[in-house]
Amino acid sequence: MFSTKIASCRKFSTCTVDYGKRNFRKFLLHNRGPQNHKERQKTNPLPDMLPYDYGVRSTGYMEGDKFVEVPELIPEIIVPDLTDCDLKPYVSYRVSTIDQPEWTARDLFNAVYRSKIENDFNTGKLNADGSAVEPSAEEKLTAEEARIKARQTGCDIYIPKSKGEQEEMFDDYLK
Quick check: 59 and 74 in contact, CB under 8 A? Predict the structure, then answer.
């Protein structure tokens, strides 16, 4: 004979038992419904069903039934050409740490103005009050003009160096 034992177990719950059933109809899902519903949503959407864009930002806006594309909203991906680049995409953990002193205002002054002041002093192109007889374009700026120029996007203070000077700096850096 075949016998079965039914084990009874007691459950205590403060909510009703759903037995795995959940009501998903209350959630507005973009892909819910048969094919004819999806086609109807494209032509005449229901007001309570929000359009779903999968997180992609739109490149324009709707003007009535027509989509107007805005060129400024189209993303432009700029990728540099790295064919002649000697750098590798890996930095070894055995590289020694480089301790550099903090960049101060005196260092900035020396990097930008020192050579000009030394040249003017050595050639005697300074007035009695210490100002340059032939001031450069940076020396002619007022305080407000210099502040505006310094806060512009892409303004680099560093003077472009020749290829030989860059290689010497790189060699000194590796020592």
Answer: yes
Backbone φ and ψ for 165, nearest 5 degrees, come out as -65, -35
Give CA–CA dist 91/59, Å, rounded: 39
Cα–Cα distance, 150 to 142 (Å, whole number): 12
Helix (H, G, I), strand (E, B) or coil at 72: helix
- pLDDT at residue 173 greater than cutoff 60: no
List 126's β-bridge partners, or say none: 132
The DSSP letter of residue 67 is E
28 in Cβ contact with 49 (< 8 Å): yes
Q: Is a pLDDT exceeding 90 seen at residue 68?
A: yes
148 membership: H or E segment, kind and range: helix 143-150
Sequential DSSP letters for 89-142: S---TTSPP---PPP-HHHHHHHHHHHHHHHHHHHT-B-TTS-BSS--TTTT--
- For 120, counting Cβ atoms within 10 Å of its Cβ (0-12 exposed, 13-18 middle, 19+ buried), the class is buried
Q: Which pTM does this prediction carry?
A: 0.31
69-93 confidence digits (pLDDT tens): 999 999 888 888 888 888 877 888 8
The token pair that represents 167 in the structure block: 């290689």
Which pLDDT tens digit goes with each residue over 112-124? 888 888 898 899 8
At a CB cut-off of 8 Å and minimum separation 6, what does 149 contact?
A: 141, 155
